[in-house]
Amino acid sequence: SQTYFKAYPCCRWLQAPVKGVLALMREHAIDARDLSNVCVRGPRFLAMYAHGEPCVRPIQGKYSLTHCLGAALARGVLGESELDASALADPLIRELSQRVEFGVDAGLEARFPARFETVVELRLRDGRRFESRDVPPWGPDAPPSLDELATKFLPIMRSACGEAITQAWLAWFRGGFAADPGLDQFFGLLRRSVLR
Questions:
Q1: What are 108-117's pLDDT values in tens digits?
Q2: How many CA atoms are closer than 13 Å to the CA of 107, on its beta-carbon side?
Q3: Fewer CB within 10 Å, N side or C side of the chain?
Q4: What Rg do the C-alpha atoms of the chain give, in angstroms?
Q5: Distance, CA of 69 to CA of 67 (rounded, Å)
Q6: Are 8 and 18 in contact (CB under 8 A)?
Q7: Strand pairing of 118-124 and 35-42?
Q8: CA distance 41 to 39
Q9: Cis (ω within 30 of 0) for the bond into 137?
Q10: How does pLDDT run across 72-114, given as a tens digit for each residue?
Q11: Alpha-carbon dihedral angle through residues 136, 142, 146, 148, given to the nearest 10 degrees
Q12: Does the reported pTM lie above 0.85?
């Protein structure tokens, strides 16, 4: 009952601030080079992910608030390629990561763990400020739609299976188990995917 998909390939607790940063960047057409700093506020628990030290292994990047936000700011997305070894060494990501600050918010702390929420503020060099209050996208009580899941997983499937098999899988999922009660199509697609 508490199983969920994550929108981004990082720690569950970093999903809300990543969502906020990406939304603000898109909504206000912000160029990351125009940022002076990024302030994240949340419950005290989040502080352990805001260490600010450069990450040297991809697994560290997935649990680093500063790296995840620096990568999202630099590239406008947060996918696997923003957490690989080349991203960890990317000078722009490292520079932007150093602009991320974290502070405990007493109100958000008081509601945690019953409700997890963060506030992200982007401060620009020209003095403008933009703020977003966010909860993690998706989750047990707010599952993604099939289209949202497809947006996340289709690029991975395309690289592994090719376009034709990817589209066949998408069609199968849209039809659901009811359209293939004997699972013949399912196992046929699985065979085609593995034997490719």
A1: 999 999 999 9
A2: 5
A3: N
A4: 19
A5: 5
A6: yes
A7: antiparallel
A8: 7
A9: no
A10: 999 999 999 999 999 999 999 999 999 999 999 999 999 999 9
A11: -20
A12: yes
State the distance between the two ends of the chain, measured CA to CA, in whole angstroms: 35
Quick one: CA torsion of 75, 80, 85, 88, rounded to 10 degrees?
40
Strand order in the sheet with 100-104: 100-104, 35-42, 118-124, 129-134
DSSP 118: E
Q: Smallest Cα–Cα separation from 25: which of 66, 75, 61, 68?
A: 75
pLDDT in tens, 122-175: 999 999 999 999 999 998 888 999 899 888 888 888 888 999 999 999 999 889
Is residue 73 within 8 Å of 32, Cβ to Cβ?
A: yes
Copy the structure tokens of residue 43: 């419950």
